[in-house]
Amino acid sequence: MKRILLLGGVTEALAIARTLGPQHVYSLAGVGRVPTDLHCEVRVGGYGGAEGLAQYIHEQRIDLVLDATHPYAAQISQNAARAATLSGVPCWALRRPAWVAQADDDWREVANWSELVDALQAFRRPLFTLGREPLEHLDEIPESQFWTLRALDMYPGNARCEVIGARGPFLIEEERTLFDQRNIDVLISKNSGSSATEPKLQVARERGVPVLILKRPALPEVDRTFGTVGEVLAAINRQRYL
Fold this sequence. Notes:
six-stranded parallel β-sheet, 7 helices, 12 strands
């Protein structure tokens, strides 16, 4: 009986995990809520890099590594591809298609935090939807700015930053209210490609608010890539991994 190691991190990964039986493993880094209603084994925590992951694959007799981590979890994806190569097993990846700017969008791509800070100088009320990274820079907020930071969980802010703990999917009306109440004049976002968080882009478009998009990192080549859960499930069924 074949065994899948599913590396999770996005909503689609949980949908795949719900189809897996007890011989398969759903692996999570430990950030966010851990599902308790699955039939497969759930593992939480790291592996110690690519070599540690390769050892786990060997010891657990894994037949397929399926990378369904976040598009910005580049190090995990690199480790997964390297570990699969070291172990002699195939590595497949679910890669969300990126969002594409529409005619009325004002998107400005930035490569890193330094470029983002430079691009922010002209604005006063940014909305950060990057996760926890901005928390490391709360003492750097200019006097001319007040930040609104949305993350999966609640964290302490300060006098110049309000932190909102919230999980998608987000409704369009909720996003409109957020923009209006906090007078948002620029949105900062990763290009995650998730429909659950896409409404914020629609609101920015409606209001003519610029969007600073953090550039997607380069991800490793793998044996097969898929754009949807349906494509993944069809492939693992054809190859009799389930």
